[in-house]
Amino acid sequence: MFQGKIVRIARPTDQLDKVIKFYTDGLGFQILYRFENHEEFDGVMIGIPGELYHFEFTHHRGHLVGRAPTQDNLIVFYLPNQPEWQSAVDRMKEIGYEPVKSYNPYWDAMGITFEDPDGYRIVLQNDTWSTVSFYNASPSPDEIA
Questions:
Q1: Would 61 disulfide with which of 40, 66, 97, 109, CB 3.0-4.6 Å?
Q2: Same domain, 81 and 140
Q3: Partners of 57 in the beta sheet?
Q4: Residue 131, pLDDT score
């Protein structure tokens, strides 16, 4: 039912301009759409044109939402090509973001974690991950019973 469908990951922010810089200048995403004062909300859709996912960040004027609830709120990007991964890490550092130690040490083994202005974290993982291989490794319902 959901295969091939568009995914929007949406969350509020108190620092819309700083978050935009983090995801565009740092991660290389583009502004796909921007709106202002839509029923007291300002917001932006950020992503890569043509991809099936994008991020929406909104700010409700006159309201505070605070920081991420935990240090384990992650978005993980798998970048198996080492030079491409290193370029992404370097770009984050060039705009002033330094890596942070991951809450879960698993992510430090092959990745580097950065914290956005709201405390949400992204992991640049120098590895692959395949839903096909994971699915094939899972036990069948008969094996569980």
A1: 40
A2: yes
A3: 11, 44
A4: 72
Q: What is the pLDDT of residue 83?
A: 98
Same domain, 73 and 94: yes
Domain count, the chain: 2
| Rounded CA separation 31/7 (Å) | 16
Tokens for 95, please give them.
């705009």
Based on DSSP, count helices (H) and strands (E) in the chain, helices before strands.
5, 7
- Which range marks the domain in which residue 134 is found? 67-145
Q: Which has the closest alpha carbon to 34: 26, 107, 19?
A: 19
Q: Are residues 77 and 45 in the same domain?
A: no
Cα 46 from Cα 35, distance rounded (Å): 12
Give 10-residue mean pLDDT values along the chain (145 residues). 94 98 97 97 98 97 96 96 97 97 97 98 95 57 50
Please give the angle made by the CA atoms of 69, 134 and 138, to the nearest 5 degrees: 105
Statement to judge: residues 105 and 140 lie in one domain: yes
Kindly write down the DSSP assignment for every residue of 95-134, as one continuous string: TTPPPB--SSTHHHHHEEEEE-TTS-EEEEESS---HHHH
46 lies in the same domain as 86:
no
Whether residue 10 sits in one domain with residue 52: yes
